[in-house]
Amino acid sequence: MEIIETKIPGLVIIEPRIFRDDRGYFFESFSQRNFEEQVCKTQFVQDNESKSSYGVLRGLHFQKPPYAQSKLVRVIKGAVLDVAVDIRKGSPTFGQHVAVELTEDNHRQFFIPRGFAHGFSVLTDEVIFQYKCDNFYAPQSEGAIAWNDPQLNIDWRIPADKVVLSEKDRHHPNLDEAEWLFDYNEPLY
Q1: Is residue 186 part of a domain?
Q2: Is the pTM of this model over 0.70?
């Protein structure tokens, strides 16, 4: 696998080595050993999958300590714009984001460490999205920031009038109004 660094340290794109022939293709989608050697020492404990249609926007979500989560995300079918926002107060990249297109064809994965909010927008008629988490889902620890916060200036690549949100995702605070964020100087692992 090839590790592609982004403008924010810790956020990385993982590009697998794909073996193709007349039967189709094969690739190793995850190796704990390689991941720990090349990306981060963490143990994934939960795999999740969602199915969504064009215009669905999920995010920007995170879990607060002690249930903070890292995520390793990928697309099985379709395409998304996947976004991670640095929400660690005191970080040199606080409030900045990285956006990556993940598709069934590029097979890329995106690693989002603890201390980041995460979301994605669906760019195709249908998408199947999978992700690994290094901590279990803890609803009492949920946090989120507004997907359309003007300070973040995220281009989700779908018209605002086509965005489909959950009721909960309609009411998150902007980053500067968030009651709880991570502290850059506090260890998260």
Answers
A1: no
A2: yes
